[in-house]
Amino acid sequence: MSVGLEVENLNMNFGGIVVARDINFDLRPGDRKALIGPNGAGKTTFANLLTGILTPSSGTIRLDGQDIGHLKESRRVKAGVAKTFQITTLFKRMSVRENIRLPVLERRGESRNWFGRADANAEVEDEIDTLLTQFNLQPSAEVQVQDLAYGQQRLVEMALTLALKPRILILDEPSAGVPSSDSHVVTEAIERLPEDLSVLIIEHDMKLVFKVANTIVVLVDGAILTEGTPAEISKDQQVRDLYLGARHGR
Ligand SMILES: Nc1ncnc2c1ncn2[C@@H]1O[C@H](COP(=O)(O)OP(=O)(O)OP(=O)(O)O)[C@@H](O)[C@H]1O
Ligand SMILES: [Mg+2]
Question: Do residues 102 and 114 lie in contact, with contact meaning Cβ atoms separated by under 8 Å?
């Protein structure tokens, strides 16, 4: 049975600074959970603990009941936990299609053959076409990534990650750096993600969060302050104070 991701009593510190405090968290198939909180709250650290980039000092991480906490990052990706590629990892002088082809071949275990056979492999090209369509990138398929608008580049990142066919998708600030005139492109791409995928969205853009999330988790100082529906969170006095406080502090 598919139960998704379950985190119990996760703790982590960098030197003397505690960045994850007894975090209990789950992400079920189909969930659209947002993780919000002030700068430095530990959101990216938490994502890195889930993907295996960082190792917790204690706690367990399970995927469908199996402990994955000991797996290295590459093994966790194979198990189905993926965080979006960073724009810096895109091959800017290659086309969108060529960029997407790389993780498709990687997942299929054909990455060593890609120089010779890639274009000939109809299944691979069909898969790339499906991803291009899903992210409305079909018109830009042959365009070099460096010639795309920033918002479009973020879509390429998402397409590359989905090419790995993850079950758990972690998006760390998908709209960061995207001009507000283009942020609907990112929102729409998230809305079109496969329904049964579990999605964790770390984001500062509250408009995006309230549009796509079913559940919001608020992280402060490494600990979960509260979790609830968007309606509950928007009414929560502690959360309101926190955001007002943060704004006054700037
Ligand atoms: N590699 C590291 N070594 C030491 N301290 C770190 C490291 N990475 C992050 N930190 C510290 O851990 C804390 C949490 O940082 P993190 O990047 O997880 O926050 P965040 O919630 O993602 O913030 P933001 O919203 O700005 O992205 C911060 O105090 C940060 O300075
Ligand atoms: Mg961060």
Answer: yes
pLDDT tens digits along 163-180 = 999 999 999 999 988 888
| pLDDT-based confidence at residue 84 (cuts at 50, 70, 90) | confident
Domain extent, residue 96, equals 87-165
Ligand 1: distance of its center to the CA of 167 in Å?
26
Which residue, of 135, 165, 195, is where some domain finishes? 165
pLDDT tens for residues 32-51?
A: 999 999 999 999 999 999 99
Domain boundary among 136, 165, 194: 165
Q: How many CB atoms lie within 10 A of CB 74?
A: 9
Q: Whose CA is nearest to atom 7 of ligand 1?
A: 14
Give the ligand at the shortest distance from the Cα of 36.
1
Q: Is 40's C-beta closer than 6 angstroms to any atom of ligand 1?
A: yes
For the Cβ of 246 lying below 6 angstroms from any atom of ligand 1, the answer is no
Please, which residues have CB within 8 angstroms of residue 85's CB and are 6 or more apart in sequence?
Answer: 157, 160, 161
Q: Ligand 2 is a single-atom ion; what residues have CB below 5 A from it? A: 43-44
Nearest to 82 by CA among 58, 118, 110, 106: 106
Q: Is the pTM of this model over 0.70?
A: yes
- Domains in the chain, number: 2
Is the CB of residue 86 less than 8 Å from the CB of residue 172? no
Q: Whose CA is nearest to atom 1 of ligand 1?
A: 14
Assess whether the C-beta atom of 42 lies below 6 angstroms from ligand 1. Answer: yes
